Amino acid sequence: MPPSLQTPVLFLPTSPFVALFGDLVAGNLRVVLVLLASG
C-alpha cells in the first residue's frame, strides 16, 4: 500500500488530486484486466 494511504493528514490537503489520480489508476487497472481477460 502507498504510504499516503496510511497517513490521512498528508492525504487530506490533496484529496481532489488524489481522487483524480485514483480514477486514472482504476481506469488503467480495468484496461489491464480487460486485456488479460481477452488475451
TrEMBL record:
Keyword Membrane recorded: yes
Origin organism lineage: Eukaryota, Viridiplantae, Streptophyta, Embryophyta, Tracheophyta
Keywords associated with the record: Membrane, Transmembrane, Transmembrane helix
Membrane-spanning ranges: 17-37
Organism: Trifolium medium
Name the record gives this protein: Uncharacterized protein
Keyword Membrane attributed: yes
